[in-house]
Structure formats: structure tokens, C-alpha cells
């Protein structure tokens, strides 16, 4: 584990070592904030770490200019990270996603067959419900409607909607248990 320099450490004497020391100080001061910034926009820790790494690589390339500039380095770092995030979003939006890529070698790799069968069992169980019970299950679970909104959309009182959902889930549970036991 490398030892991070502290702020009051004297800089090393050689130019290369001084640049390394300066970059290590920049990293210690700003990396955590940059990572949080990038992760908030990507939603993915790995991609956020890549953005931060590329930001500090660009800072290393521009280090003499950054150290001589009177403007705050933090602002420059966040601008670079912001541009990298924009570039990544743009390139992802124009890159087509092919369904065949996920099944490149084996069509049912990673439990795909089991997932397909589980879906089939669930669809069959939903078909066996009455239309009123199926509507409330679909509205609340698959469409994510709150109970009062689902009741309003279906034109029933909230108590009736709750009762239908209760009985529908009980029936679904019994059907799924019997289907999985077979």
C-alpha cells in the first residue's frame, strides 16, 4: 500500500519526483469528491473510477501548466470529469445494443433457461387468475401504481382493491408452489 504524502511534507528535489508528489497531493485532495461526482451521474462505481482515472491522467499530462496557473485546480478537474462524462454518455447513446451479444456463445448461459421457465410458470399462474385479480396484480406489481391510484384506475374503492390483491397473491402463491413442486 503506497504511502500518501501529507500536506506539510517537503516536495522531493528532482523534477520527476516533484511532479509525482504534486499529483499525489492533487489526488489526495480531490479524488474522493471526483469519484462521488462521477458515480452520481453514471450510477456505476467501476465507470466512475474510470472517469476519475482518466481525469488524473489528463491532469498529469497538463501538470506544469496546472501548477503555474493561478486558477483553482479543482475547477479544472471537475470540468475535465464533466466533459468525460458527457463524452461517455454520447458514445453510449450511439452505440447499438444487439440482443445477440448477450447470448454470443450459449443461448441459455447464466441460467437463461431457468429464467425462461420461471417466466412461463408465472405467466400461466397469472392467466389462471380472474380478470379483476389479474388487473390489480398487474397494476400494483408490474406497473408500480400505488394502491389508491390502482383502485381509482380500476374504478373500485381502495378497500376492494386491497382485498382483491390479498386474494390474488394468495392464489398466485399456491399456484407457484404447486408448479415448482411438480
Secondary structure layout plus pairing:
Layout: H1 15-42, H2 45-61, H3 63-68, H4 73-94, H5 99-102, H6 112-127, H7 131-142, H8 147-154, H9 158-181
Helix pairs in contact: 1-2, 1-4, 2-4, 6-9, 7-8, 7-9, 8-9
Elements, N to C (H/E) = HHHHHHHHH
Alpha-beta classification: mainly alpha
pLDDT averaged residue by residue:
79
Instruction: Tell me the strand percentage band.
Output: under 5%
Please tally the β strands and state the result.
0
Percent range of helical residues: over 70%
Quaternary organisation of the protein chains: single chain
Describe this structure in words.
- With 182 residues, this protein is an all-alpha fold.
- The chain has 2 domains: 15-94, Rna Polymerase Sigma Factor, Chain: A; 112-181, Arc Repressor Mutant, subunit A (Orthogonal Bundle), CATH 1.10.10.10.
- Helix content is 75%, strand content 0%.
- It is built from 9 helices and no strands.
- Helix 6 crosses helix 9 (158-181).
- The longest helix is centred in the N-terminal third of the chain and has 28 residues, at 15-42.
- The protein is elongated, with a radius of gyration of 28 Å.
- It starts with 14 loop residues before the first helix and ends with a helix.
- Residues 26-93, 125-173 form the RNA polymerase sigma-70 region domain.
- It holds the Pfam family Sigma70_r4.
- Belongs to the sigma-70 factor family. ECF subfamily.
- Keywords: DNA-binding, Sigma factor, Transcription, Transcription regulation.
- This is Sigma-70 family RNA polymerase sigma factor.
